[in-house]
Amino acid sequence: MTKRVRGAGIAVCAVAAAGALLAGCGDDGGGGGKENSASPSASAAAPSVAAPSASGGESSGASGQMTEDQRSRKALVPQAKISYDKALKAATEAVADSKPVSVELKRGAGGKPEWHAKVAASDGTESAVRVDAVTGKADKPRTENEDGDDKKKLADRLGRASVTARQAADTATGKKSGTVTAVELDTNDQKKEIWSVDVVTTNDWNKTTYDVDATDRKVLREHVDRD
Fold this sequence. Notes:
Elements: H1 2-65, H2 68-76, H3 84-94, E1 98-107, E2 113-121, E3 126-132, E4 142-143, H4 148-160, H5 165-175, E5 179-187, E6 193-200, E7 207-213, E8 219-225
Antiparallel strand pairs: 1-2, 1-5, 2-3, 3-4, 5-6, 6-7, 7-8
């Protein structure tokens, strides 16, 4: 009887020891399992969050934010090797005794960049001159068909403009560094003679228009075109 009890006791102890060993191994394995299951999920989650911003979220977003006009400026402005003032000089030389009225950088036939300039004689007769924005060569002037009243108005406007186109452009670029893409003698809503100057900034390809008083170079208006 004693032997049976002692044998049974030994058997129970053996089972208990085995159970404790298995439990201990289960704890170690379970604890490690939790760490291993958490670590892969954390490491997997990090790339899934970081990947969009690192893989091109910023670059695609930047290009996606650029408007059609901004893309057009980015494509056109760097192609112009002749500046606005040289284009105006070529235009005024093409028409004797003329003064600048306007100039604007545009895309010409065949996609070539051109400066579309207008100049006027002292009597207000206006001529249009296209200047190659790469070579600086001026085409043959085309005289605008205008009546006597329009000629007189333009002549008077030119007479009242004591500020030159270049001085107005210098005033505009003094406010914001960039490339001048248009200059035009005009009259604002207050009936004041102004030079309207467009300046394109090459870091964002926005266009800023400055209305510069044609008598004292004061900036009367500033407008940023982000379209």
